[in-house]
Design a protein that fits this description.
Belongs to the LysR transcriptional regulatory family. The protein is an alpha+beta fold and about 300 residues long. The chain has 3 domains: about 80 residues, Orthogonal Bundle (Arc Repressor Mutant, subunit A), CATH 1.10.10.10; about 100 residues, D-Maltodextrin-Binding Protein, domain 2 (3-Layer(aba) Sandwich), CATH 3.40.190; about 100 residues, 3-Layer(aba) Sandwich (D-Maltodextrin-Binding Protein, domain 2), CATH 3.40.190. Helices cover about 45% and strands about 25% of the residues. The strands form 5 sheets. Strands 4-3-5-15-6 form a 5-stranded mixed beta sheet. The chain has a 3-stranded antiparallel beta sheet with strand order 13-7-14. Strands 9-8-12 form a 3-stranded mixed beta sheet.
């Protein structure tokens, strides 16, 4: 047992390589070099007397022995890692957090993060990415990603923080050109600035379970770009209502079919499966959850 504990570096390198899928990605997340990761794992393999990975120029896959070893060692390392978290609540929370926020909704969240969370926890530092792209938490070394919509990627733990109301909008200039929209049939025949993820357009869902796949005038991968397209009159748009409420109040956008109830979408905090959230991450997630709930009541 003591021999294995002396290879703690190899154990960590092995687990992180499994999680990230490559020596290079594991090295980036650990602040090491790919060669040092490979050498650490090789020393561990010699100690165990088995190959943990099948290596080739194009493939890095676990052997049967590697899978069995990972299943045993991963929970133990997590328990060791989480033991520090049990005492963190007795001191001021500190450390670094790397978070990903969706573009347009994130724009609304940033101000209270700056004015409330940062002053409240001066020992916590933040790196914040703003994108609607579904980041790879392990490969890109994110502690948490806040995402709109369902998360279908395996190996992730999700916590729903709120459900967001959606709306259909268009600019006054768009309506002057295409006429007032008074039925779902008309909705199917007008051009949209569509949200597209992984090459697939996002459907418009209704509370009754039905849906419409809008016809595309222009396809975009961020809510900010879709809002801009709607404001310019390029197309109608299906957006989170709170992100365009100010535009609606100012008359820059008009709500289409306000009597039709649209399906809400979940707003979720996502972190890698097998990683217990740190105390600072719990504080940050709880802050965002409280913020979303309070803004929903306004």
């Amino acid at each position: 047992m003591l021999r294995l504990l002396r290879e703690a570096t190899g154990l960590i390198a092995f687990v992180r390589t499994v999680q990230t899928g490559s020596f290079s990605a594991a090295a980036r997340s650990l602040g090491a070099t790919p060669s040092s990761i490979s050498k650490s794992i090789s020393r561990l393999e010699r100690l165990l007397g088995v190959h943990l990975f099948r290596r080739s120029t194009r493939l890095l896959a676990m052997t049967q022995e590697g899978e069995a070893f990972y299943d045993k060692i991963m929970p133990l390392l997590e328990q060791i890692d989480s033991s520090a978290e049990t005492v963190q609540s007795y001191r001021a929370p500190a450390g670094h957090l790397r978070a990903s926020l969706p573009s347009e909704l994130g724009r609304m969240i940033l101000e209270p993060i700056f004015t409330e969370f940062v002053p409240m926890y001066p020992e916590i530092s933040l790196s914040v990415g703003m994108t609607d792209r579904h980041v790879d938490l392990l490969r890109e070394n994110y502690d948490v990603a806040f995402r709109v919509g369902q998360v279908e990627q395996a190996g992730l733990m999700c916590k729903t923080l709120s459900h967001l109301d959606m709306t259909l909008v268009a600019s006054p200039s768009f309506l002057r050109k295409h006429g007032d929209i008074e039925s779902l049939g008309q909705l199917k025949n007008i051009p949209f600035a569509r949200y597209v993820a992984d090459g697939k357009p996002y459907p418009i869902g209704f509370v009754d379970g039905g849906s419409i796949l809008p016809s595309g005038r222009i396809d975009l991968d961020s809510a900010t770009a879709i809002r801009d397209a709607a404001l310019s009159g390029v197309g109608a748009a299906h957006l989170i209502k709170r992100t365009v409420q100010d535009d609606l109040d100012r008359g820059l956008l008009v709500e289409l079919l306000p009597h039709v109830k649209l399906q809400t979408v979940p707003f979720q905090a996502v972190h890698a499966s097998g990683r217990l959230p740190s105390f600072r991450l719990q504080l940050f997630t709880d802050f965002i959850a409280t913020l979303m709930r309070s803004s929903a009541r306004e």
